[in-house]
Structures are given as C-alpha cells and as structure tokens.
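FORM 7B: Structural annotation worksheet

SECTION A. Query
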Amino acid sequence: MFSRYKNYLYNTMTREEAWNHLKKYVKNEKMLYHSLSSEAILRALARRLGRDEDRWGLAGLLHDIDVEITRADPYVHALKAEELLKDFNLDEEILDAIRMHNEMATGLSRSTEFQHALAAGETITGLIYATALVYPDRKIAPVKPKSIVKRMKEKAFAASVKRENIMECEKIGIPLQEFVEISLDAMKEIGEEIGL
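SECTION B. Predicted structure
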C-alpha cells in the first residue's frame, strides 16, 4: 500500500518507518484503511488550525497500532501503543494524543486540542466509510457532506460510531458541518488507497 505523503522525519521516525511499524502489528486491511483515513483527516485538521501536519498525521496513522494485540479491549487499548512506539523517541504530545483517544483506558477526560482532534478525526472515519458503502457504487467520490450530517442523526446507522466523539470537533473550534467537509475531502483524496 502506498501513501501520497512524503517521507517526513519527526523525531526519529520517518513516515515510512511509521507505516512499516504499524503493519507489523496491524494486519486487518480495514484497520489499515482506518489508520490511513485518520492520518489524512488529522493532517487536514492541522492545516485548518495552523498546527504541525506531520505530528498530527503521525498520531492519526499510529493511534490504533495496538488494536489487534489488545483485541480492542477498551480498558487497555491505546496504553500498549506507547510500549510499541518506545524505541522511536516520539514527542510526548503525540503519545499523549494516542493514549487519550481512548479515555476509558486512562480513566481521564480529554482536555487538549490535539486529544480532541484525534478523537473526533479517527471516529468520523467510520461514519464516512459506512455512508460511502450505502451508495450504489460503494465509493466515496459521490458522498456529500449533507449525507454525513444526516447520518449523524440516525443513531441506528453505524451504531458503533460514537457521535459524542465526533462532536468534540466543536471543542477545537470547528463546527460540525465544516468538520464533516474537511474530513470527507481528506478521505476523498486517498479514496483509492482506502478501498473507496
């Protein structure tokens, strides 16, 4: 699988190393698509907010590195990630955002812009993906932001997607409509890479 992002260096980990390290621990293709989608959205959010795209993208790419090892157990998922990333001397804010995307494991509440952005950004990928799959061609290109917003209100649609996490976009100063547009555009740019 190929990504359009340059092989940036952040601390001691290049983007290529991050991708290869992720693939050591995550084998499920849909989870890899989720990671790529999260990376794209976090990079787009960083651009919108004037933050470091590479740092935010790295958190998006790696946030679920431990999901298969922990079997997504909400009481340990995201805590094991730090151990899997320890050899790369990553910035503490990146590790913190990764840990805090799953509040249940830490017993703490998200409080920083980076934490809220990762939680909202990685969560909306599921809603966008599910919406694209109900379109006749099962592709993301024809999906409109209003369809995503409409699906947000339908609690039975993609029921496992935590709408409250998506709404954390407002805690970083981005209204839902704009957040949906940013996220959808980011995923459309990598549609082929993520099977859409």
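SECTION C. Observations
The longest helix spans residues 29-49. DSSP finds ten helices and two strands in the chain.

SECTION D. Sign-off
Analyst initials: ____
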